[in-house]
Amino acid sequence: MPRPLCAVPQRDLLAALTGALAGTGPAVRIGTGPAPTSVPDQVAVVVATSGSTGEPRQVALGRDALTASAEATAQRLSGPGRWLLALPTDHVAGLQVLVRSVLAGTRPVATEPGPFRPDAFVAATAELTGEGARYTSLVPTQVVRLLADPAATRALARFDAVLVGGAALAADLHERALAAGVRVVTTYGATETCGGAVYDGVPLPGVQVALDPDGRVRLCGPVLAEGYLDRPDLDAQTFTEADGRRWFVTSDLGRLDGDGRLQVLGRADDVLLTGGVNVAPAAVEDVLAGLPGVQEVCVVGVPDAQWGQAVTAVVVPAPGRPPELGQLRVAATQALGAPWAPRHLVLVDALPLRGPGKPDRQAATRLARDLIDPTEVAHGRHA
User: Fold this and answer.
1) Which of 135, 131, 125, 121 is CA-nearest to residue 187?
2) Over the stretch 188-212, which tens digit does the pLDDT of each residue have?
3) Which of the given ranges, 174-183, 270-279, 359-368, 372-381, has the highest pLDDT on average?
4) What is d(CA 313, CA 22) in angstroms, rounded to the nearest whole number?
5) What is the spatial distance between Cα 107 and Cα 93, in angstroms, rounded to a whole number?
6) CA pair distance 142, 78, nearest whole angstrom
7) What is the pTM of this model?
8) According to the CATH classification, is domain 271-379 in 3.30.300.30?
9) DSSP for 23-92, written as a single string
10) What topology is assigned to 63-263 in CATH?
């Protein structure tokens, strides 16, 4: 039996989610774009997402999947608790803060609207009073800003768990957060899995991880979305049946270590081809992020007459002396090999972002092309 699908204003979202999850109210529509006025009864939330390609997708999330995700998160952490909302609710990570709060019978505290600020995070943390565990969910860019502020770092260390997802968390940033007493939990997932489904490389209860022969990550379990509204073509591409189970086929490459822990290597379509060698940007970023003078980094490829694509580091420098290209090349060569070393360095005040805080690689590529001397690109010289 169909149920109504309704868009609701931000101020009414928590109450609307309560009814949608209980089955007593209409399904909730998050985001914009064309959508039907009704959905199958099991659908609780429809999230509009463009993904990295800009192609509109309406992802239908069921009540059972959202509940399974929230219960698995509580089981992996310290049980249900109170949440601080610091992410936009039109993306699944922010939405899940509300869903977990509804199912835990708690009310989240939100940071002030507008651009993310460490002082606003400190003020919101102070409002999380009472008994029970305290949690928040962030993206790496927010962690960078909080660790640069002593008061915000202390506030961050007060949480029982800080979920960090949406983009890869650089090893150096992870280590600095842990050293500051922050209980970081790295998360991996997608809107199609109700958000994070793998924590610290280990699947949540009920979730299974597998790799296709080409290394593409597949996820299975009760957290999977119902599918895409009015897009059977996407359903057929993205959700597959194997071994009698339904799998979500991601766009990411990964590997499993000896303990079965998942390491995500980056998106399959992010891989750069330079001089005939496939280079995963995330691996280069992980090396460069730990170098002196590098606060944030996004690695992209710019067209190059000699190499096909030239590995390029777009860097937000840390306060003080900015890094030099030679320094980055030596570190990448020693850790990964010469083809992985950046041939250009572009310094920027901030990385272009999309969604809740993911680096926008397409925008970063355009930015790099605009800032690099075209004669260097044409002749394949180092910047």
Assistant:
1) 135
2) 999 999 999 999 999 999 999 999 9
3) 174-183
4) 48
5) 16
6) 23
7) 0.83
8) yes
9) TSSPEEEES-S---SEEETTEEEEEEE-TTTT--EEEEEEHHHHHHHHHHHHHHTTSSEEEEE-S-TTSH
10) Rossmann fold (3.40.50)
User: Which residue type is seen at 324?
Assistant: E
Q: Where in the chain is the domain with CATH 3.30.300.30?
A: 271-379
Return all residues near 25 (Cβ < 8 A) that are at least 6 apart.
16, 18, 19
| C-beta separation of 239 from 221 below 8 A | no
Tokens of 14: 């928590």
Q: Which pair of tokens denotes residue 2?
A: 């169909």
Q: Which long-range contacts (CB under 8 A, 24 or more apart) does 200-206 make?
A: 200/261, 201/257, 201/261, 201/262, 201/263, 202/260, 202/261, 202/262, 203/262, 204/69, 204/72, 204/73, 204/75, 204/76, 205/72, 205/75, 205/76, 206/68, 206/72
* pLDDT of residue 119 exceeding 90: yes
Partners of 210 in the β-ladder = 218
Dihedral angle of Cα 321, 151, 108, 32, to the nearest 10 degrees: -20
User: pLDDT band for position 340 (50/70/90)?
Assistant: very high
Residue ranges, CATH 3.40.50.12780, the chain: 63-263
Task: Considering only residues 51 and 164, tell me which one the structure prediction assigns the higher pLDDT.
Answer: 164
pLDDT at 106: 94
CA distance 248 to 237: 9
